[in-house]
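User: Some background: our group keeps a shared notebook of sequences we're curious about, and every so often someone picks one and asks for a predicted structure to add to the entry. Today it's my turn. The entry only has the sequence so far, pasted here. Could you supply the structure so I can complete it?
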Amino acid sequence: MLLYLNEDSFVSDERLAEQVKQARQDRLKIVTAHENDPDKGGVPFSRFFETTPQELIADGLYKDLAKSCFPGRHRKVSLVLLAKSLGATPARSRADLLVSGSNRFSVAEGSTSLAKRSLGGLSRVFAKMSSRSSAEAREVSGGEAPSVQQQV
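Assistant: Of course. Here's the predicted structure to add to the notebook entry:
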């Protein structure tokens, strides 16, 4: 479970506290993301000790460090680290599949396009990685990378 903490967390909606309580009872992993960008509702972490129900604090909700979501040039790195905390792994590029001889896409690759849409600025990072891998595949295959058809 991703618990995104900003100025509105635990303030205007009691359902959040109930959902977190239930997730803890179900022993779900809870990854907390602390928004630091004031334009996105970022506040000092100390505020959450005032707004979070004491029962959750006493139960260890904040025992593990929250992943900080920093603004500006550090935003991309913050989101990558957050994604890793949630279990994300680097997806193999299509070029890697060509070199390995496989013509099937993995679930992780299908999620690359979702990551591009969801994480906005990270799309350029994925595009650079993909173009670099495509160039490497052309070198390995003698200049042309054959097309790969997606099989579902």
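Suggested note for the entry: Residues 49 and 102 are 51 Å apart (CA to CA). Confidence is low (pLDDT under 50) at residues 103-123, 129-141, 144-152.
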